[in-house]
Amino acid sequence: MDLAWIESEGGPVIVLEEALRHLWGGYTNSDYDNACEVDGYAGLVPFEEPAAPGPALAINDIPAPTTYMEEFGAIVQWIAAPSDSRIVEVVRAGIDVVDAWEDGPIVRVNGRLSLFDAALPGTEAGADELLLMEIEPGAYRLKTADIESASGTCARVHKLDRLIE
Hints:
Blueprint (H helix, E strand, L loop, with lengths): L12 E5 L13 H6 L5 E4 L10 E4 L6 E4 L4 E7 L3 H11 L7 E8 L3 E5 L12 E4 L4 E11 L5 E9 L3
Antiparallel strand pairs: 1-3, 1-7, 2-3, 4-5, 5-10, 6-9, 7-8, 9-10
């Protein structure tokens, strides 16, 4: 499985609707500062742009290479591993047996999502700095857990669990 990975310059990554990406100001206004103020693994942050219809999701805590595994509806951060294929193996083997997920915010999805470095203005996120995620519209609870192997491979997984509406 070939996955595209993005990295931040040291801060959080942001997840928002692709149709709203142009409204994210990143370092040019308070959007990036708001994303950096998120406590814990993830949280919702308002846009400075008043035209934005809702908040964006900041994936915080650690700057790490990040990807999206569509098969699990999960944003995955590479904490420790010799290769991306090893991260995929560990996530596949462990995602269904996680004992304790930490509940995060509820996220409303209305269309395709963008994931990129929160410091970047949305209009400046280039193809190699951006992941597009196809997710069915609806409400999702973000749940976070670390998945580790006995050999020391570790991934932080942020799973989008669909809520019944």
